[in-house]
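Hi support team,

I submitted a single chain yesterday and got back a structure, but I'm not sure I'm reading the token output correctly. Could someone confirm the output below corresponds to the sequence I sent? I've pasted both exactly as they appear in my results page.

Thanks,
R.
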Amino acid sequence: MAQEAVDVRNLPMIPDARIAILRSKWYSDIVGSMHSKCEQLLIKRGAVVETHVLPGTLEFPYAAQMLAENDFDLEAIICLSVVVKGETHHFDMIIDSCIQGLTRVARDSLIVVINEILPVVDIEHARARAADDEFNKGIEAAAAAIEMVDWTRRYAPGISDDTVEFH
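Hi R., thanks for writing in. Yes, this is the structure output for that exact sequence:
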């Protein structure tokens, strides 16, 4: 199956949208490439980005919850990481815990949470998804956040922008 790049040409502007990126220290070259592409696109569409570097992926739900509870202007959280399957069940524990935790944060806080944690069996799969091209998963994460922040601003009054009026 052919890979399809996200079309970023018609993404909406999201002026002054506050977006946090959580990134893991593990596989810093790969995560750094995703982060760079993600941040570039967010800023190009008007977002204000803050990055938080965390010890690992398992810490993402905790950090996302803390940001959601303490940063009332935050409109989205993007999680960037790589988890490589090894010989133990540690991989499954991390992925399951993060997905459940991040889903809970999004649901309970009504803040957009984008999960771009790459669960891979071979590190080369992650490298391919973080290449310096239009298929970089950081671009996909940014595009999803931009679309969801825009959607929230238009259809969910009072959640992200008190100035939105509906008739």
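A quick pointer for reading it: Residues 160-167 have pLDDT under 50 and may be disordered. Let us know if anything else looks off.

Best,
Support desk
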